[in-house]
Amino acid sequence: MAKAFLHEGGPYAVRRNRVLLAPVLSGVMLASEPTSRSAHSTPGPSQEGQFEMSTHVSLSTAEAVDAYWYPQSRRAYWLADVIVHAVGIVLAIAGCIVLVSTAAASGSVKLTAALVIYSAGLLAMLGCSALYNSNTNQKISRVLERLDLSGIFLMIAGSYTPFMLAKLDGPLAWTVLAIVWVVALAGIAMNLLVRRNAPRLFIMLYLGLGWAVLMIIDRLIHSMSPVGLALLAAGGVLYTIGVIFHVNKKLPFNSAIWHGFVVAAASCHFAAIYLDIAAVPIV
Predict the structure, then answer these.
(1) CA 117, 118, 121, 123: dihedral to nearest 10 degrees?
(2) pLDDT at residue 10 in the model
(3) For labelling alongside 2, which of 81, 92, 161, 267 has CA 20 to 30 A away?
(4) What are residue 14's DSSP bridge partners?
């Protein structure tokens, strides 16, 4: 029963609502009440049933309470995930300040707008993920989970924006960018409005949307430096490999490992944008 109470309200919190503990706790109180019957008296059939039920409820309560206050191993998983998020957010904030400052200094409105959008998407993804994965309050877990899933769509579309606006430009680039943003916004709307979300479906959408860049890979090859292109590809590969750890729930520290891949992949894309776009002002 302890396992049944794990992993809701964030990946590490209680599975079921705390209200379910009420009848369990009342059962423990009944089981612990003194009885006027002598120690040598023999319980009847109904009393035997009550005793067995009370004992079972008492054990279940102990397991439930242990599950609510995280087992030590789960606390370590949670702490590792929090640290990964903290490192990612600090790096992202510092990096985004550098990106936007560089763009503003160039005097290019288009470049500045593209990098502001990218920075907003990056910070939204990491911020929403940090809120959800560090949360221990079951009451707001559903809301935070939906924000987490929505932040990923913003990150993907935001990552396309600098490459399409500031690197490729032209009708094809604008068309691809429009399609990506429409799909991303549709995914966000579905995630926020549909009663039951579908994380596995969203994983497929994330991967499909991210690798849709292959439709214009020839343009990118001719417009990006070898280092920038390698960083862009490395980021995509790291995101994809990380999904393996994300879906493998039985693996110790799987969430922290997954988010480590996310931070590494985002760092690759950040470096590609800085080297190939922010450092090359456009008009």
Answers:
(1) -110
(2) 52
(3) 81
(4) 6
Specify whether the CB–CB gap between 249 and 70 falls below 8 A.
Answer: no
Identify which of 163, 133, 153 has the alpha carbon closest to the alpha carbon of residue 206.
Answer: 153
Q: Are 68 and 2 in contact (CB under 8 A)?
A: no
CATH topology of domain 72-278: Rhopdopsin 7-helix transmembrane proteins (1.20.1070)
Contact in structure between 68 and 19 (CB atoms under 8 Å): no
Provide the whole-model pTM.
Answer: 0.74
Site of tokens 């992993």: 7
Q: Boundaries of CATH 1.20.1070 in the chain?
A: 72-278
| Burial (Cβ within 10 Å: 0-12, 13-18, ≥19) of residue 283 | exposed
Rg (CA), the chain: 26
50 confidence band (pLDDT: 50, 70, 90): very low
- Two tokens, residue 226: 């070898």
Say if CB 148 and CB 10 are below 8 A apart.
Answer: no
Give Cα separations from 226 to 221, 232, 274 (angstroms): 8, 10, 14
Interval 63-100: pLDDT, tens = 333 333 345 567 888 999 999 999 999 999 999 999 99
DSSP state for residue 107 in the 8-state scheme: T
